[in-house]
What we know:
This protein has helices at residues 15-21, 27-33, 58-70, 91-99, 134-148, 173-186, 218-224, 245-254, 275-278, 291-307, 336-347, and strands at residues 2-7, 73-83, 86-88, 106-110, 115-116, 125-127, 155-156, 159-164, 193-198, 211-214, 231-235, 238-244, 264-269, 284-287, 312-316, 319-320, 325-326. The protein is α/β, with parallel strands linked by helices. A hairpin with a 2-residue loop joins strand 7 and strand 8. Helix 8 (245-254) runs parallel beside helix 10. The radius of gyration is 20 Å and the shape is globular. It starts with a strand and ends in a 6-residue tail after the last helix. 38% of the residues are buried. The mean pLDDT is 93.
Amino acid sequence: xxxxxxxxxxxHETEENNQWWGKGFTEWTNTRKAKPLFPEHNQPRxxxxxxxxxxxxxxxxxxxxxxxxxxxxxxxxxxxxxxxGKRFLHKPLDAVLEKGEPDFPFCLSWANDPWTRTxxxxxxxxAEQDYGEEVDWKExxxxxxxxxxxxxxxxxxxxxxxxxxxxxxxxxxxxxxxxWRKLAIESGLEGIxxxxxxxxxxxxxxxxxxxxxxxxxxxxxxxxxxxxxxxVIDGYKQxxxxxxxxKYWTTILERKIKPESGKTYLxxxxxxxNSARVGGKSALIFTGATPEKFSEYLTKQIKKSIELNxxxxxxxxxxxxxxxxxxxxxxxxxxxxxxxxKNALENNGFYMG
Length: 353
């Protein structure tokens, strides 16, 4: 079983974020300013030994890969931000490709959401998506090709693995994927293994994908409309939602995958609390998460994934500190969530010694 952790590259300064959010903004800016919204609320989330890394630092990227490998993570799935030729948050991935380090498997998920000021409650669009025509699809593919050809890039049946976060937003998605596969063959690849991400957005069946991924906890939120298992905290200038970690995980584990759904990769989530990003205005906060519970649930999800003959399980996330779902060590638990991953693998017969 190969565990792939989603990887957020927003831990470095960019021109766009300086313009939109203020000079020096990174994901750590949100994390540092977080405050508890109720008694025993686990905020702020602080990295172990105050390691507020910068992802343009090669040593930081090497450290991440080393501890991920040590505890059983197979690879990272980097979020890839492409807006008709314009890229955001690209410096870490550029360095990974250019330097050939760290020597650690990776793939990409095209995070094709439009960028807005939703963190502050505004609908102002900062970067709008325009999917264009064949000439634009070709430009995108040509950018991806060196990554696809990298020896570290994760493959399925010798085809590079590529995820799309919101495929229903792409008007001619099937046509675009068909064109990409044509270009892939012409470029010497055997094709592309493209995965439709199922999440909290619209999830119609879209043709042209090799597989689907249940991205958690978003997909379960979509299916259950929030399960209605939490409570709304509605007070002066704030309204946030408190959800039950155990109920969500129980629902995830009990859900059956229908044969007609085709190849379906399973997801796992460490925890969830996006109050660092949105404050008390519309935060979604899970309560009850512990490393011990996570190990138990992940053990069962790996077993379920094996029964589906899946090679991969996707974990949310490696370093989503602003959303409270991360495997990296923090001050409260140290390396316990990474130990939980190791234990879950060993519980399924994958020896990590």
